[in-house]
Amino acid sequence: MIVKNEEEVIGRCLKSVHEVVDEIIIVDTGSTDRTKEICSEYTEKIYDFEWINDFAAARNFAFSLATMDYLFWLDADDVLQTEDSEKIRELKETLDPTIDSITMVYCLAQDEQGNMTSSNRRNRIVKRLNHFQWRGFVHEYLEVGGKISNSDIVVYHKPMKSHVSDRNLTIYNSRLERGDHFSPRDLYYFANECLDHRLYEQAVEYYEKFLDTNQGWIEDKIAACGKLADCFHHLGNKERESYYTLKSFEYDTPRAEFCCRMGFGFMQQNEWEKAVFWYRLASEMTRPNDNWGFFNHACWTWLPHLQLCVCYYRLGEYLQAYKHNEIARQYIPDNEKVLFNRRLLEGLLN
């Protein structure tokens, strides 16, 4: 782990994992709170690393200190549930030594009932002797190869701080001022930082620069289309919002997230038949098992059905509306909107 001023969350993380790993290595990049003191309750292997505005460098230093056969990395605001800790314990006993990397699901958000609402997949456990390296000074990634196994183990991201930090944006801007070369991936993640800080026009500039390179990971290209649509929505340009929503289809078969976006655009214009087309398309898609990119679970489960309920209600087709509301209720049984729709439609049908 690499950490800095994580006293609010580091204990929770280490408590969830310390009984299933053989060593814990903490690399501190300049904490001024109780982070190192809390870490010392779980490990003696705490090291200092002078911060040089390079996350990959810090992570590679942490990896270089490991002595076990496999390395498992976490962030301070990550946590394992008991069932996932047990799965790791079992994995250690059955792991095929020819495996080079094991991926895990990364739960980025949950609803009030604890259901996963957004996620992606990350390489989490890697063979030490392969000397896999982290790349990227910000939004670093672990460059791996060889035999990769996809597990159903989940790591939960549970940050305590809700504000957007200026740290990454400052690093990117300093590199821009210095004239550093930005890789396609750098362009994409710099645009993300601009979007997070509501710098919509600057975000558009760098997302478009990223797409113009015609390089980079396909999931980032698809995500960039969605984020460009977000930017133009905030800028009030519906034509460009629609353009980038449809452009996502150039990179892969339509994703439910973009079909729902198209449907919502037509709902806003009271074009209910057109909205039905896109939401029905979203509702009929097969949910992927191992999606590496950002995955909005609502768009692949209950959301298109809830919206179809509204569309069919507006069209006066109450039985169809009721049918789709009931499908949505299977996923979110206690949702207030679903329960309200049910009462309303049962009254109309009766």
TrEMBL record:
Q: Which Pfam families match?
A: Glycos_transf_2
- Asked if the keyword Transferase belongs to this entry, the reply reads yes
Gene3D superfamilies associated with the record: Spore Coat Polysaccharide Biosynthesis Protein SpsA, Chain A (3.90.550.10), Tetratricopeptide repeat domain (1.25.40.10)
Which residues belong to any copy of the Glycosyltransferase 2-like domain? 1-108
Going by the UniProt record, its keywords in alphabetical order are:
Transferase
Molecular-function GO terms, alphabetical: transferase activity
Q: What is this protein called?
A: Glycosyltransferase family 2 protein
Q: Which organism is it from?
A: Cohnella endophytica
The beginning of the lineage is: Bacteria, Bacillati, Bacillota, Bacilli, Bacillales
